[in-house]
Amino acid sequence: MSVPATHPAAFPGTEPTPTKPSKGPTTASHLAAVPDDGPERRASGRRARARDRLMDRASQPHVPNAKLVGVENVENLLLFVDDDLRETALAIHKIEAFLLRTLGLLEATDLRREDVRAVASDTSVLDHVDLLNETLESLRRRLARLAARMR
Fold first, then answer.
1. Separation of alpha carbons 95 and 6, rounded Å
2. Could you give the dihedral angle defined by the CA atoms of residues 40, 41, 46 and 52, in that order, rounded to the nearest 10 degrees?
3. Which end of the chain is more exposed for a tag (fewer CB within 10 A), N or C?
4. Structure pTM?
5. What's the CA gap between 118 and 137, in Å, rounded?
6. What residue spans of 8-111 are helical by DSSP H?
């Protein structure tokens, strides 16, 4: 007899683990469960990584700050601020990738002159630094505009 994997009898000898945290002490069996509070489990709390939160603002509906309700023409300005935040984060990510590449090179057991020269001659990181500067300037200008519109 074939039993679907979603059926409790598919894995005899195992007991289902609760999906909601209990108030008692945590045991290893409770750690194995992944909380599932509906179709989107992240909706229950704020995500920790800035990149995830920035992407969520682009793809998920969010409640505007109560202090911005009633501010004239704020919706488009906030879209541009969100875009500046994402572009800034992307530039930082690219710069961080260069730094990690350099760190990996220096930690390599077979450090070679050619590899050091290749990383040193990679000027793309300078483009990302320029982009970071531009997006930060734009972000600051837009925030100043936002502040001027607020009461």
1. 44
2. -60
3. N
4. 0.62
5. 31
6. 28-31, 50-59, 74-107
HEC per residue, 112-138: CHHHHHHHHCCCHHHHHHHHHHHHHHH
Spell 17-26 as b/e; 16+ CB within 10 A means b.
eeeeeeeeee
Which residue bears the tokens 């992944």?
34
Question: How far is Cα of residue 121 from the mean position of the Cα atoms in its chain?
Answer: 30
**47, 25, 37, 10: CA torsion to nearest 10:** 120
* Residues listed for the chain: 151
Taking a C-beta distance cutoff of 8 angstroms, is the pair 86, 58 a contact? yes
Burial of 1 (0-12, 13-18, 19+ CB in 10 A): exposed
What tens digit of pLDDT does each residue of 46-83 get?
666 777 777 777 677 777 788 888 888 888 898 899 99
pLDDT tens, position by position, 22-41: 444 444 444 444 444 445 54
Q: Which residue has the tokens 């350099």?
A: 102
